[in-house]
């Protein structure tokens, strides 16, 4: 089993290690995992350095189409 197959894996924040990471920050030279607190704390610098910030474990609901006959 690979890491990609474990979407619910517990990954700790790279800064405090005690909180679960909620965000993956992609940088040119590597990735960081931050909890919400540390993302907010370093947001200004991360907005300049990161090319992508991904919210982990985010569940998006897909709207259901209603099949109506006219």
Short synopsis of the structure:
The chain contains two helices and three strands.
Topology:
Blueprint: E1 23-27, E2 30-34, H1 36-41, H2 43-49, E3 52-55
Antiparallel strand pairs: 1-2, 1-3
Could you characterize what this model shows?
- The protein has helices at residues 36-41, 43-49, and strands at residues 23-27, 30-34, 52-55.
- The chain is α+β, with helices and mostly antiparallel strands and 70 residues long.
- It has a domain at 8-55.
- A three-stranded antiparallel sheet has the order 2-1-3.
- It is elongated.
- The mean pLDDT is 85.
> C-alpha Rg, in Å?
17 Å
| First-last Cα distance | 49 Å
Low-pLDDT ranges: none
Helix count, DSSP H or I runs of 4 or more residues: 2
**Major sheet summary line:** 3 strands, antiparallel
Describe the oligomeric state of these chains in a short phrase. single chain
Quote the average pLDDT: 85
Helix content: 10-25%
Pattern of helices and strands? EEHHE
Q: What is the general shape?
A: elongated
Tags for this model:
70 residues; elongated; alpha+beta; single chain
């Amino acid at each position: 089993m690979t890491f990609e197959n474990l979407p619910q894996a517990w990954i700790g924040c790279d800064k405090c290690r005690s909180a679960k990471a909620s965000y993956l920050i992609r940088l040119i030279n590597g990735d960081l995992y931050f909890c919400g607190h540390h993302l907010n704390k370093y947001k200004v610098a991360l907005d300049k350095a990161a090319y992508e910030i991904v919210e982990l474990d985010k569940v998006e609901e897909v709207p259901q189409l209603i099949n109506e006959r006219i």
